[in-house]
């Protein structure tokens, strides 16, 4: 094996990575001068575009004014201002924001907050978390237990305090073999059934991505799914956590994906694009009423972290929100996102190895299959997504991989560029994807 130079323990150990030097707009440049079109915004992170001077300036000014204060000792204007800015866009009545660093941490925070609300309601037996297969909520232990991606869970399974998983709303490969709308949303009714099976006072919360992302190659739910989930949660007094780490902050063409489905959760989780994809910043949103329930029951939410409610990261967040507002980038995400969908369908729909093209706003997935008629996936061992991804990478186009879509087999790629991408750049992505697909899969 060729040794990897340097002193870093990289995330990728099977190859050497190019050294990234600078980034601007939708482009990343490496130290050898090669340019990459960032058509996935990294891991569906960069929304306002790379190299935003305004964010750099906000961070610099905040850092000079106030470098660090502990969140149990001081409030900070930067944190207050970002919360107020988010409140103006958040779904009905969500008016309290608790800030952390990573999406995984925010998911952990949401799970603990739900539990603490249940304790405050004198329901200490409500301990079980229900989540969905083919979901992604992060890789820290609690978030991983909630996540439904087998390949990430398997090595650590013995260490997890597992959630109870129900099938996702994945119409292409419905777990019940049904078709929408005749199915009458069997996958949502599975939540009702599971809560009943676990017992009337066992379940604390249900967590799900508003729009399925990393583990399901983007999967918007069918009409009626979320209102039915909300009704089931209310009926059983189970708290609803919507994870919008990936699909929030304008990604779907609305500020929050929940708005597409007229559903307001009890707890909403944000990350990734919250700082414009710059500093590590995540958040949990809830209501004053729920916060007051916790407060009335003994004072504090037993949670936190050295870098929670961090003013520097929140300064980046506020600058990103201002850019989204001023440049109307959420509207642009809706408009150009539709264009991406149209072009993907025009360019790839007749490919024998494209099983599905799905998405919303600036979040699109293409699922590859060995046989389009039967939707038979490629075996995971063929590493089709990885090979397509690598060829595109070498040709200067960055997409995001999503695998394990059919059982543990199955391959997809996610197209989720910064909202500032131009129509010409979109054409470039589509053209490259089509050419690479033809070359690699003879399709
Ligand atoms: C829906 C969702 N939740 C949580 C996470 C975890 O976020 P992080 O990688 O910042 O810990 C991700 C990351 O991809 C995500 O997509």
CATH architecture of the largest domain: 3-Layer(aba) Sandwich
The SS-based structural class is alpha/beta
What's the average pLDDT? 97
The unique ligands bound to this protein are: pyridoxal-5'-phosphate
Low-confidence stretches: none
Overall domain count: 2
- Rg: 21 Å
Q: Any idea what the shape is?
A: globular
Helix content: 25-40%
In what order do the strands lie side by side in the largest sheet? Answer: 4-10-9-8-7-5-6
Instruction: Kindly report the name of the CATH homologous superfamily of the largest domain.
Output: Type I PLP-dependent aspartate aminotransferase-like (Major domain)
Q: Specify the number of helices.
A: 13
User: What's the order of the H and E elements?
Assistant: EEEHHHEHEHHEHEHEEEHHHEEHEEEH
Biggest sheet record: 7 strands, mixed
CATH class of the largest domain: Alpha Beta
Defining key terms:
single chain; globular; Aspartate Aminotransferase, domain 2; alpha/beta; Aspartate Aminotransferase, domain 1; four-stranded mixed β-sheet; binds pyridoxal-5'-phosphate; 13 helices; 443 residues
